[in-house]
Amino acid sequence: MTDSQPTHDLFAQGIRPWAARIRQGSLTFRQTVEYCLQRVAENQSLDAFECLDSERALASAGALDSVRQHGTDLGPLMGLPMGVKDIMVVEGLPTTNGSNADTREITGSEGRVVKQLRQAGAITVGKTKTVEFALGATGVNESRGTPWNPVDRAVHRLPGGSSSGSAVATSAGLVAMALGTDTGGSVRIPACFTGIVGLKTSVGVWPLDGIFSLSPTLDSVGPLCRTVDDAALMHHFMSGETIRYRPDVAGLRLGIVEDLFFDDLDDKVAQDFEAACQLLERHGARRVAVSFPEVHERTALFTAIVPAELINSLKPERFVAIQGGVDPVTAARAAVGLDMTAHAYCSAQHRRKSLVNKACCTFNEVDVWLSPTCPFVPMPVAQLADHATHERALLASRNTQPGNLLEMCGLSLPMHRDGLPTGLQVCMPLNRDAALLSVGQAIESVLASAG
Asked: Which member of 162, 163, 213, 371 is catalytic?
């Protein structure tokens, strides 16, 4: 990198300010990619990437600089350096699905999400680490390594999963944004733990081809970003939906589900959530209590549906053959699917659908469901050796799974002002993604005003 190139975090303020610098002529696409690659090299201890695509990324950036100089502008994603979760196929790069077992043929060929982003000029810096088969909320992967959460450079803390590497790479400024997937919280949890923004889109809005299928019922794709505006930009590109700016939170009805979401919170999480709510109330929002005790069924429903669908993707004979080499926590959770009966699976799906309808009715009285994203701050990985701590760590997805099971779209944004990160989760019904992002931008603005 030359002396004229940047050394600060290029993407701290989001994608649009970076794109503006490109168009002002103070920065090139190649300089941007060189910056990212140097930052990756300087932060190898974070272990965010499964593999890099350095040569192609630099070549693509140079070609895009030439195209721009000749008068062609592909838009704000042109030259955008991104990470891609390693359950998503990128042509020319290996796909491990976070496993030492060979499951490439299950994932297939490059899908529409990656292809469309590349056609818009986005540049893949590399494939980011993931929990094995995307089944895990803590971010721990004993098969291929656990990324280091950049919020604490002295202590190896949980990065959150399963989109662990995507969150770490984005939080540390190694890329502008990264792609993740969310089946039970796998975008929102790592966003929460690393202090960034994560969007869980409605199932079916972003295409799923070319992505390892953990659960066809619950899988969705979404970005890990620095700002809600970044998430809105990505969602508009992928879906075509227009996100209309909401000027404030005045009149916003914050649905506070009194069941499950607030049980046994870390003190810091509880304090940050209360401070965020009070701030939103001072700007005209109001809290509305919601009773939905059925959220306590989330473990039974998730356990009946997801492991069975994962085993169907892997095929029972393959899973049995590789089970001994799979991350032990992932293997134990997946193995439940071997014994799941058709009756139990269908019953769970029927019950889930009835709860989706019931949950939708609560939005007659509220605009969003609001809660902490995770019940605790990211804990040290070493503490998972203690059984009680390990069991608590597995609750990372407790507050996020209901959104998947109830067919909601969801957003996690930082709500902490200092110390370890905490996340504010905002959820809305299926296909209300544009409205969710509009509300999220307004909430983000209010939280930022507190300094």
From this structure: 162
Does the residue 440 lie in any domain?
Answer: no
**pTM (2 d.p.):** 0.97
- Residue 206 · residue 221 · CB < 8 Å: yes
Per-position b or e across 340-375, b if 16+ CB within 10 A of its CB: beeeebeebeebbeebeeebeebbeebbbbbbbbbb
Give me the CATH number covering residue 37: 3.90.1300.10
Based on the residue annotation, tell me whether 85 is a catalytic residue of this protein.
yes
- CB atoms closer than 10 angstroms to residue 111: 19
Amino acid of residue 91: E
**What DSSP character marks residue 276?**
H
Write out the residue range of the structural domain in which residue 119 sits: 15-195+223-233
> What is the tens place of the pLDDT at every residue in 333-376?
999 999 999 999 999 999 999 999 999 999 999 999 999 999 99
Catalytic residue among 60, 143, 164, 186: 186
> For residues 335 and 324, what is the distance between their CA atoms, to the nearest angstrom?
11
Is 162 considered catalytic here?
A: yes
Sign of the dihedral defined by the CA atoms of residues 218, 223, 225, 230, in that order: negative
Active-site option among 85, 127, 129, 200? 85
